[in-house]
């Protein structure tokens, strides 16, 4: 009996030992913390995966279309998604596919590229522009292509390579080429929701037109000229040539059926080109009229023939995106003096009535016409812009007349002052309903009701009102020029028809 009890006790001890060993082992195993990776979207948990690298590789394999589209080897998590290592006692995980499917329904994945930030601290109202590119070289190449469109292939290559021809007597030489804006670069992870440029060709078109939309085209008709096509599509010739770089000049012949681009150039960045120019310019003779009250009104006699002179003029020319914006005279040397033409007319004309035979030039010489009458940037520029003589140089009445409006009160930088005209003068020439207007002046030296004769000083050249570039502490004389317009009807009432002033000369 005692043996039997001993055997039973031994069996019980073995059973208890097995149970304790088994459960003790199990309990010990469950108390060991496991590594896991929680996936957060904008701060909230959307799943837990067992291996962050496997999850990363899974995404990279699934997003083959993104890699093919952008030509990259790696796709990254969306913005706002983070993966954090945690320790857990729960060995139940989400599959990579489950977490991935939650992500693709909420946010786009990202790729590594370059964020290009464009700023212009010289312009107070300038807003930063951001462009995304796969790498910095793409942006640099696109800017290079854009510069070539504005400056010209051969001219730019000679400038870059240092092979420009030296100026011996007359000629031009590029002094500098660059962007007005400041460009900074930053490596970043960018959502594929954004426009990301993968090649310089597409980016250069965007930089030129400020849009990725396809530009308008025109099919040339028999007899069309570049000037005709440009004008019909609200472009000036220079803008047309920039949009169609295969054409060398306005005189390039077009053929029927040819397709040309007529998109309006609206550059994202501003290409500034500074040119040193030396040229021999004709100094046209002036005309002096003397009156003989003893002669009949039909009497006219030339008592001295006029002769043009010649000046050698050195200038600094500033082009912004191919458009001449400023011309500053460095020096002017008279090579041949001009000789005035002197005419004697019978019966002196009333001083307030214009003499339609002779119009005085409204600025000092030498000068440059920076913008001609015609389309510019998609709108009609119904005047000529004259620059060169410099800030504060004299402005003259183009002919006899009466001052209709003389307005002051504008300081540089206030672009809307006097409706954008700045300080200005309007003259009624009291014949054929002809008026002239002189805009953006610094000072006005006449008042309403004054009578002026041809050549009378009426003010000084300036940069008030709506001018470009806008004057600033960096460039206080920026935008200096005279906006000179001629019209039938008074600009004072804004009811007039302008025409090309150069038809008077």
What is the strand and helix layout of this fold?
Layout: H1 2-30, E1 34-41, E2 44-49, H2 52-62, H3 64-70, E3 81-88, H4 96-104, E4 110-119, E5 129-133, H5 136-151, H6 153-161, E6 171-179, E7 182-191, E8 196-197, H7 200-209, E9 217-219, H8 226-232, H9 237-243, E10 259-261, E11 271-283, E12 287-292, E13 300-304, E14 309-320, E15 323-336, E16 341-346, E17 368-371, E18 374-376, E19 379-381, E20 384-387, E21 394-396, E22 401-407, E23 423-428, E24 434-441, E25 443-444, E26 451-452, E27 457-460, E28 482-488, E29 497-499
Parallel strand pairs: 5-8, 12-16
Antiparallel strand pairs: 1-2, 1-3, 4-5, 4-7, 6-11, 9-10, 11-14, 13-16, 14-15, 17-20, 18-19, 20-28, 21-27, 22-23, 22-26, 23-24, 24-28, 25-27, 28-29
Helix pairs in contact: 5-7
Kindly report the average pLDDT value: 91
Tell me the helix content: 10-25%
For the record, the CATH class of the largest domain is Mainly Beta
CATH architecture of the largest domain: Distorted Sandwich
**CA radius of gyration:** 38 Å
Q: Per DSSP, what share of the residues sits in E-state strands of 2 or more residues? A: 25-35%
Please provide the count of β strands. Answer: 29
CATH topology of the largest domain: Glucose Permease (Domain IIA)
The helix count comes to 9
Write down the overall geometry: elongated
| CATH fourth-tier homologous superfamily of the largest domain | Glucose Permease (Domain IIA)
Distance between the termini: 144 Å
**Class by helix and strand content?**
alpha+beta
User: What kind of sheet is the major sheet?
Assistant: 8 strands, antiparallel
| Total discrete domains | 4
Stretches where pLDDT falls below 50 for ≥5 residues? 19-30
């Amino acid at each position: 009996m005692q043996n039997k009890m001993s055997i039973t006790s031994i069996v019980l001890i073995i059973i208890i030992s097995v149970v304790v060993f088994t459960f003790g082992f199990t309990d010990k195993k469950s108390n060991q913390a496991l590594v896991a990776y929680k996936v957060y979207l904008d701060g909230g948990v959307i799943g837990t995966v067992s291996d962050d690298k496997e999850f990363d590789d899974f995404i990279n394999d699934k997003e083959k279309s993104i890699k093919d589209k952008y030509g990259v080897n790696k796709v990254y998590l969306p913005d706002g998604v983070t993966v954090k290592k945690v320790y857990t006692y729960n060995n139940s995980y989400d599959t990579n596919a489950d977490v991935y499917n939650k992500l693709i329904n909420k946010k786009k994945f990202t790729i590594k590229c370059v964020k290009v930030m464009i700023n212009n601290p010289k312009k107070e109202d300038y807003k930063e522009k951001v462009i995304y590119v796969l790498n910095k070289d793409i942006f640099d190449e696109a800017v290079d292509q854009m510069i070539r469109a504005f400056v010209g292939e051969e001219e730019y290559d000679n400038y870059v390579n240092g092979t420009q021809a030296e100026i011996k007597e007359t000629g031009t030489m590029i002094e500098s080429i660059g962007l007005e804006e400041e460009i900074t670069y930053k490596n970043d992870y960018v959502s594929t929701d954004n426009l990301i440029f993968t090649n310089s060709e597409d980016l250069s078109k965007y930089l030129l037109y400020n849009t990725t939309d396809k530009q308008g085209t025109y099919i040339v008709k028999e007899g069309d000229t570049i000037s005709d096509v440009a004008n019909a599509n609200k472009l000036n010739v220079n803008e047309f040539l920039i949009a169609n770089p295969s054409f060398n000049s306005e005189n390039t012949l077009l053929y029927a059926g040819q397709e040309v681009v007529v998109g309006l150039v609206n550059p994202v960045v501003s290409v500034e080109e500074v040119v040193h120019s030396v040229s021999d310019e004709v100094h046209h003779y002036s005309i002096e009229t003397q009156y003989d009250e003893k002669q009949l009104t039909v009497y006219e006699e030339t008592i001295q023939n006029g002769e043009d002179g010649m000046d050698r003029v050195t200038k600094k020319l500033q082009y912004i995106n191919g458009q001449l914006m400023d011309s500053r005279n460095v020096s002017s040397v008279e090579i041949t003096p001009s000789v005035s033409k002197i005419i004697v007319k019978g019966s002196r004309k009333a001083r307030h009535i214009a003499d339609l035979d002779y119009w005085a030039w409204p600025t000092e010489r030498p000068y440059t016409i920076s913008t001609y009458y015609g389309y510019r940037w998609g709108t009609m520029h119904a005047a000529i812009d004259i620059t060169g003589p410099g800030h504060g140089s004299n402005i003259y009445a183009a002919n006899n007349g009466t001052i209709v409006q003389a307005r002051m009160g504008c300081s540089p930088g206030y672009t809307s002052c006097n409706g954008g005209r700045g300080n200005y003068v309007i003259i009624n020439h009291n014949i054929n309903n002809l008026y002239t207007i002189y805009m953006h002046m610094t000072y006005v030296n006449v008042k309403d009701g004054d009578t002026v004769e041809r050549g009378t000083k009426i003010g000084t050249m300036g940069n008030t009102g709506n001018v470009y570039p806008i004057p600033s502490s960096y460039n206080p004389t920026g935008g200096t020029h005279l906006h000179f317009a001629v019209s039938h009807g008074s600009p004072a009432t804004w009811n007039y028809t302008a025409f090309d002033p150069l038809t008077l000369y």
